[in-house]
Amino acid sequence: MQERTLVLVKPDGVKRRLVGEVLRRFEAKGLKLVGLKMLSLSKEEAEKHYSVHKERPFFRDLVNYITSSPIIAMILEGNNALSVVRNICGSTDGSKAAPGTIRGDFSISIEKNIIHASDSQESYNHEFPIFFKNSELLSFEYGDEVLF
Ligand code: CMP
Question: Which residues on neighbouring strands pair with residue 33, listed in sequence order?
Answer without folding.
Answer: 76
